[in-house]
Design brief:
By secondary structure, the chain is mainly alpha-helical. The chain has one domain. 45% of the residues lie in helices and 8% in strands. Strand 1 and strand 2 form a beta hairpin.
């Protein structure tokens, strides 16, 4: 299976995934989402990718915040 930097390489014969070394220069969707939520756990590559997303979809940050609010309201554990 062909791989890109920062992605898992799957060895189908062994049925295991080999995770490549962490590379903060490769954007990661979870860290981009963190940036859109005004989080602190992101890197320059994530911020650059998020800015390109915001240039293409100006409402992306609001959509991320709305999504987080929806998940918090609908997926809360009963009794908490």
């Amino acid at each position: 299976m062909a791989t890109q930097a920062g992605k898992a390489k799957v060895d189908h014969g062994a049925g295991r995934a080999h995770i490549q070394a962490f590379d903060p220069t490769v954007p990661n969707v979870a860290r981009i989402y963190d940036f859109l939520l005004d989080g602190k756990d992101n890197y320059a590559a994530d911020r650059d990718a998020a800015q390109r997303l915001l240039d293409a979809v100006p409402g992306a940050a609001r959509a991320a915040r709305d999504n987080r609010r929806f998940l918090g309201a609908r997926c809360a554990v009963p009794g908490r």
